[in-house]
Design a protein that fits this description.
The protein is an alpha+beta fold and 711 residues long. Helices cover 34% and strands 25% of the residues. α3 (85-110) runs antiparallel to α4, α11 packs parallel to α13 and α11 (316-325) packs antiparallel against α17 (487-502).
Length: 711
């Protein structure tokens, strides 16, 4: 009996203990829920919610003639939260009621699957209850706008589960046009920007905004509220580049590079009076595999225009300027060429061609591009005081950066007396462009100063900064040096450069030319790493300006040839590129300067604009312009036609397989629309669309090329 009581006592005690523990747990749960619930819910939110930066829309880069060189367009990724409360309530009745119509709309929009296939995909996602189901990537803005009107999706994020995450991509309508100068970065989150994109990054990128987002499965962020801080879009920049001149320079350079199988090259065009860079083309050989074999293509892989190298004979102009300015020589001074060779301090100076000439004038030595002649004259003039020659190079900024407004310009290399790189033969070799390195842009800046009667202009690329179309910062031409030398010296240099193209090394190239050219050929044997000069690699160059009697443009072409190239002289390789550029610009621009402008007929009061209806209505209301609505959707594309007294809206039909009418659209709307339809867009002119190469209503195919003409 005592044993039974003892057992019962222990059982009761254990039972009471368990009951007490349960009461404590229950009490704690009530306490947490009722008194600490807000704290723990906020703690949970803090683990899944975050203040996220919202990138501002990056500004657009324009050419001087108003064409877009680099711009941003929106793209969207679509996720579906199949566990959204509104989507699954009442056993998903809302989802099932809209499934068929939604699948049909998706099939019509994307045209890559049948409605049945889309239905199966959506049903699979619904059954899986996936909270971050990736439905589609890289949806363009037009498709995004249309998607928002589809069944189920138009009910909102909670009831449909559809989540749109947007990002912007960088687009260049002219593809790799002036790539290294513009610095296009197709994915701004990856890789370092170069060129103007890097130099003016702070202006272009704007100011980021902030908003609260919730992270769902898969790491996808879903916005919870509107912006807490609105992003401030980047500013637009207008460059000095001219699309036509850039295209001419690139095509001429490409033609010679391919024909001569050259390694790399560049072509620079400056506007003489202002120093504006109208074109800067850079091409380098890039190895690829095609059909299983090794080959190569040419692309803008590096900015050779701002990278120093031994200039060769184009540098002789600086040597002539120094000697003429110091009165060491005149154009009639005689120099013995010794048939084309000269020994000095144990080394031999050679002329590139064995001409057999003996006594010639300084002007003739320059026209013949004689290394012996320039080396002899420089040695006679400055051997006792080489610093005097170096001072001239410093005074024309040949030993410093040009100051161009683009990141990446590299310093020139010019040795000075007394340093470890200076020896007895440095001076004579410098006289004809060896034992020093300068950039093609420095050569162009110097030649431009000679063309501009001694006034050296700083080369620049930025014309203006715009905010919402309004100029907030305009750049003016900057005079770096008022006068690089005396008027008489400038006059003599003009005579020398014109003589090169009439009687010298470029005479054959410019024979019977309809306009006068002043320029200088250059051919430099360059080292190839550890192989030294044994590989026979020559750098061909031509620097000059035109028309010589009233210079409008200065152009420099530099091309590095392959080893042992059959053609390597400056007049054979770089000269034809210069001439093609000069011929096209003279015909298109220079010769037209004297025409009498026609009287322009004033615009009539009738006008026509195309855009999103909601945006056009906002503008019309702001300027108090009365209009007649067409009772269509707010997010449809409409045409607004009429005059000040009567304005009406008409729907602009946008299909998927047929070409819409672009007439009256702005360039950006037209590009976004057509790129979204898979078309490759080429642009001519500026303003609004006036003509299109594919007629409205015509069937279109993905990848088809479309030319858009602006008025």
């Amino acid at each position: 009996m005592e044993v039974k009581k003892d057992i019962l006592w222990r059982v009761y005690l254990s039972y009471i203990f368990v009951v007490v523990i349960c009461l404590v747990i229950f009490g704690k749960a009530v306490y947490i829920q009722q008194f600490q619930g807000h704290y723990w819910r906020s703690m949970s939110d803090s683990l899944h919610q975050k203040i996220e930066n919202v990138e501002a829309e990056r500004g657009t880069i324009y050419s001087e003639d108003g064409k877009m060189l680099s711009t941003s367009i929106p793209q969207f990724d679509i996720y579906i939260d199949f566990s959204a409360d509104g989507l699954r309530e009442k056993s998903g009745v809302r989802f099932r009621e809209n499934l068929d119509s939604l699948s049909l709309c998706l099939a019509n929009l994307f045209q890559d699957n049948t409605a049945e296939a889309y239905k199966k995909e959506l049903l699979y996602g619904f059954k899986s209850k996936d909270r971050a189901f990736l439905f589609r990537k890289n949806v363009n803005y037009r498709q995004y706008q249309e998607l928002k009107t589809f069944p189920l999706i138009r009910l909102g994020r909670n009831k449909s589960g559809f989540v749109f995450t947007n990002r912007t991509i960088r687009l260049n309508p002219y593809k790799l046009f002036a790539y290294r100068t513009i610095g296009l970065d197709r994915d701004s989150g990856k890789g370092q920007k170069v060129g103007l994109e890097q130099t003016y990054d702070t202006l272009l990128k704007g100011t980021s905004g902030k908003r609260l987002v919730r992270y769902i499965a898969g790491g996808v962020s879903v916005p919870i509220d509107d912006y807490q801080i609105e992003p401030e879009n980047g500013k637009d920049i207008v460059t000095t580049l001219d699309v036509f001149i850039q295209e001419v320079a690139e095509n001429a350079l490409m033609k010679m590079m391919v024909n001569n199988e050259a390694e790399h090259g560049c072509a620079i065009v400056l506007e003489t009076k202002t120093g504006k860079i109208k074109a800067m083309a850079n091409l380098g050989k890039f190895p690829i595999k095609k059909d299983g074999r090794d080959t190569s293509i040419y692309t803008e892989d590096f900015n050779y225009a701002i990278s120093p190298s031994e200039p060769g004979s184009t540098f002789k102009l600086a040597t002539m300027m120094s000697m003429l300015e110091d009165k060491k020589i005149t154009l009639q001074s005689q120099v013995n060429l010794n048939g084309g060779t000269w020994e000095i301090n144990g080394k031999t100076v050679f002329d590139s061609e064995k001409h057999g000439r003996m006594f010639v004038s300084a002007k003739e030595a320059f026209e013949l591009s004689s290394n012996v002649g320039l080396a002899k004259m420089a040695w006679t003039s400055y051997s006792s005081n080489p610093s005097q020659f170096i001072r001239h190079l410093h005074q024309i900024h040949m030993d410093t950066l040009t100051g161009i407004d683009i990141t990446g310009e590299r310093w020139p290399i010019i040795h000075r007396p007394g340093t470890k790189y200076w020896d007895a033969n440095t001076l004579p070799w410098m006289a004809f462009g060896y034992n020093l390195e300068v950039t093609p842009l420095q050569t162009a800046t110097f030649y431009n100063a000679v063309a501009n009667d001694g006034k050296m202009m700083r080369p620049y690329l930025l014309n203006a900064v715009k905010d919402e179309g309004e100029v907030i910062d305009a750049r003016e031409p900057y005079v770096a040096i008022d006068k690089i030398c005396s008027d008489q010296t400038i006059k003599d240099l003009h005579t020398c450069l014109e003589g090169v193209c009439i009687e010298g090394t470029a005479a054959q190239l410019f024979r019977n030319n309809p306009y006068k050219v002043a320029g200088k050929t250059g051919t430099a044997l360059v080292a190839n790493g550890s192989h030294g000069y044994a590989d026979g690699i020559y750098q061909s160059s031509f620097a000059g300006y035109f028309p010589a009697d009233n210079p409008q443009y200065t152009c420099v072409v530099v091309i590095k040839n392959k080893p042992h190239a059959l053609r390597f002289y400056g007049a054979e390789v770089a000269g034809p590129v210069f001439k093609e550029i000069a011929d096209r610009l003279y015909t298109t621009y220079v010769r037209q300067n004297n025409y009498q402008p026609k009287l322009v007929k004033p615009d009539s009061s009738f006008f026509s604009y195309v855009g999103l209806k909601q945006e056009i209505k906002k503008i019309a209301n702001t300027i108090q312009l009365p209009y007649k609505d067409n009772d269509g959707k707010e997010d449809e594309m409409v045409s607004m036609d009429g005059n000040r007294n009567q304005v009406s809206f008409s729907e602009r039909m946008i299909g998927n397989t047929s070409m819409p009418s672009l007439r009256g659209m702005g360039l950006k709307d037209a590009v976004v629309l057509c790129e979204g339809m898979g078309l490759k867009v080429k642009i001519k002119g500026r303003g609004k669309v006036s003509n299109q190469s594919i007629a409205a209503g015509q069937f279109i195919a993905h990848g088809q090329e479309l030319t858009v003409e602006l008025n």
